[in-house]
Amino acid sequence: MSLPIISIIHYLEKQEVATMTTCCCYKVFFFLVSLIFLILCSTFTVLAAASGRELIGFKPVTNDTIPFSYIEATGRGPSKWGQLDPKWKACGDGKLQSPIDLLDQNVKVLYGQEDQLRRDYKPANATIISRGRDILVAWKSDAGKISINGTDYNLQGSHWHVPAEHTFNFKKYDMELHIVHVNSLGATAVVGVLYKYGKPDPFLSKVFLFPYIKSVTKQEKSLGIFCPNEMVFESRKLYRYIGSLSVPPCNESVIWTVVKKVRTVSREQVQLLRDVVDDGYQANARPVQPLNGRAVNLFIRPSKNL
Fold first, then answer.
1. What is the C-alpha to C-alpha distance for residues 251 and 245, in angstroms, rounded to an integer?
2. From 283's CA, which of 14, 18, 103, 301 has a CA 20 to 30 Å away?
3. Separation between Cα atoms, residue 166 and residue 146, nearest integer Å
4. Whole-prediction pTM value?
5. In the prediction, which pLDDT does 279 show?
6. Residue ranges of the Alpha-carbonic anhydrase domain (predicted)?
């Protein structure tokens, strides 16, 4: 019961009231108000915990005022993230952390699963911004969604990690694209696409056409109408597991979908991503985390459903 309500009840109990009936009515009334208040607060807390996130208007809460690093020598590297802020505790002691190594012997192969990932993207207003640790393309209006087992997750943004964070059978690749989606309750679903050096990536080529790409700062700049379908990835073979955000606060219960097919990116594109990140990172990839017995599935669709 909150202090203001307790004070009101104490005040009423000290007053002279006309009858015992009136006094009882006051007590019952304020007891019911207090009970409703506690139930509402508890319900909101449970919803936030169930989604693995803090919720403010169904938006993820992050704290960019506390610097973290990918360099262990700074004392703020990945092994210390959980000690930098009480809200980042999961980074240190969480049991469902990401990224992971997708090892064949730990994967269960499932064939013919039709509803594991359906895309329905559409052109929308987008912006680009440097967050110091990476470059973010964010969609500011309805850019469509993905559907996982019948649940819709709305597209929020995409960013890149160099080198890749997830590994296949301990093999590390050169870059990873994360496409972040959030549903109406604040739950997160991320699609990860891995890259190796080769031909230029069409999506990055499109982004890099903008003349100000080399001067991207922490102030958002408009990309105008931008189509998410430029982020081409094959969806026939998909890994799926439950993990976390791979950056602080490392909130868990994130639905991860990692595309098995590795795409290509040019060395020049990767170098440009590094150059426009203003904190001097030559790498922004968190090390792989323990699997801790989690289930990892590989869904394979028939070729006709590509």
1. 6
2. 103
3. 21
4. 0.77
5. 57
6. 66-300
